[in-house]
TrEMBL record:
<keyword id="KW-0067">ATP-binding</keyword>
<dbReference type="GO" id="GO:0003697">
    <property type="term" value="F:single-stranded DNA binding"/>
</dbReference>
<dbReference type="GO" id="GO:0000731">
    <property type="term" value="P:DNA synthesis involved in DNA repair"/>
</dbReference>
<keyword id="KW-0547">Nucleotide-binding</keyword>
<keyword id="KW-0963">Cytoplasm</keyword>
<dbReference type="GO" id="GO:0005737">
    <property type="term" value="C:cytoplasm"/>
</dbReference>
<keyword id="KW-0234">DNA repair</keyword>
<keyword id="KW-0227">DNA damage</keyword>
<comment type="function">
    <text>The RecF protein is involved in DNA metabolism; it is required for DNA replication and normal SOS inducibility. RecF binds preferentially to single-stranded, linear DNA. It also seems to bind ATP.</text>
</comment>
<keyword id="KW-0235">DNA replication</keyword>
<comment type="similarity">
    <text>Belongs to the RecF family.</text>
</comment>
<dbReference type="Pfam" id="PF02463">
    <property type="entry name" value="SMC_N"/>
</dbReference>
<dbReference type="InterPro" id="IPR018078">
    <property type="entry name" value="DNA-binding_RecF_CS"/>
</dbReference>
<dbReference type="InterPro" id="IPR003395">
    <property type="entry name" value="RecF/RecN/SMC_N"/>
</dbReference>
<dbReference type="InterPro" id="IPR042174">
    <property type="entry name" value="RecF_2"/>
</dbReference>
<keyword id="KW-0742">SOS response</keyword>
<dbReference type="GO" id="GO:0006302">
    <property type="term" value="P:double-strand break repair"/>
</dbReference>
Length: 359
């Protein structure tokens, strides 16, 4: 599967542009702010019906324009598939496949598998646990729709339980029976979610370690650990233990919505003890593991977007990445960089067909 062509109208800073792509490697080069990342984001949009960088949909329409449109032509199983995503101010976003509207965008997710590696991924290291949970949930739910439904159901019960705790506090009352209805539901969904996360991470972590060792050339050891209160107690026990605290704080302080991933280098948190290049290598390894996982599950080689990939990586790590690309693990790749010469020199070493777009 690969993207043959994309046409953009009024998408962010791009007024109107069409690109015909190479089946293997495509590079966008140019100065800061010319719109290289915006083209990658448009490609991301066609897979997920949303931007990777700006979650406020209308802010992706070019300033002072009434709409944006992204049209992509893919080669999929020797057929051409057309995906169009458009948004008019004041109207709902529209997503079409071969001219037919999708009612639910979720039906489209996973059809054009894609992984993006971008400097914005730094949030996974620097931000709170919700960013890391979103990452795991995103990878799992691309392939497991039941998981996504369980997660939505869990979050709904969670807000109902929180509303009840607030009601108890406001009315100086408490009803254990009423609360237990929510506890039972949280336990049912929470346990299922925990089991899926645990199974997923058991498969994912070895793939991640392997990728990190390749990129770093076995230079340092890293760890990725799953942290969940359910590793020690059942969900019902966890809720019981935190009841007094929950009553005081008026929200549910324990459960799988507090799960986290611990990122370590030489057994220390990478956030505090990893260099910029090591942190970047860690994030690339995470995303390449995601790539591998999606490929195994869907049997389609995902499109890979490398945003500003070469910055902060030493020459050896860049070479290791090129090695990875060379062994045919990958399908179509899009790269952005500010240095045309550097990009050309690097991609030449891959012995794969490539095309460079100067923006
Ligand atoms: N809705 C919008 N309308 C017009 N311009 C926009 C909109 N959203 C973003 N931009 C502009 O797009 C430009 C950023 O483009 P992009 O992030 O693709 O740059 P880049 O070429 O990747 O740069 P860098 O090398 O710095 O990463 C900025 O100038 C930004 O102001």
């Amino acid at each position: 599967m690969y993207l043959q062509k994309i046409s953009l109208v009024n998408f962010k800073n791009i007024e109107s542009q069409t690109f015909d792509f190479q089946q293997k490697i495509n590079c966008f080069v140019g100065d800061n702010g010319v719109g290289k990342t915006n083209v990658l984001d448009a490609i991301y949009y066609l897979s997920f019906a949303k931007s990777y960088f700006n979650s406020v949909a209308i802010q992706n329409i070019k300033h002072n324009e009434p709409f944006f449109m992204i049209e992509g032509e893919y080669s999929l199983n020797n057929r051409t598939e057309q995906i169009v995503c458009s948004l008019k101010r004041g109207q709902k976003k529209v997503l079409k496949r071969n001219g037919k509207n999708y009612d639910k965008f979720s039906e489209h997710i996973g059809q054009i598998p894609l992984v993006i590696i971008s400097p914005a991924d730094r949030d996974l290291v620097t931000e709170g646990s919700d960013t890391r949970r979103k990452f795991i949930d995103g990878v799992i739910s691309q392939q497991n729709k039941t998981y996504l439904q369980d997660l939505i159901a869990y979050n709904k019960v969670l807000s109902q339980r929180n509303a009840l705790l607030k009601y108890f506090a406001a009315n100086r009352t408490f009803d254990a029976l009423n609360l237990s209805v929510y506890n039972e539901q949280l336990a049912a969904y929470g346990t299922k979610i925990y089991e899926v996360r645990k199974d997923f991470l058991e498969k994912f972590i070895p793939i991640f370690n392997e990728k990190y060792q390749i990129i770093s050339g076995d230079k340092e050891s890293v760890n990725l650990l799953y942290k969940s209160q359910l590793q020690e107690y059942s969900m019902l026990e966890v809720l019981k233990k935190s009841l007094e605290k929950d009553k005081i704080l008026q929200y549910t302080t324990s459960g799988i919505h507090k799960d986290d991933l611990s990122f370590e280098i030489e057994e220390y948190p990478i956030k505090k003890f990893g260099s910029q290049g090591q942190q970047k290598s860690y994030l690339i390894a995470l995303k390449l593991a995601q790539f591998e996982f999606i490929k195994q599950q869907s049997n389609i080689i995902p499109i890979l977007l490398f945003d500003d990939i070469f910055d902060k990586l030493d020459e050896n790590r860049v070479l290791q990445l090129i090695e990875l690309v060379n062994n045919d693990e990958f399908g179509q790749i899009f790269i952005t960089d500010t240095h045309q010469e550097r990009t050309e020199n690097i991609v030449k070493q891959s012995n794969k067909p490539y095309k460079i777009f100067k923006l």
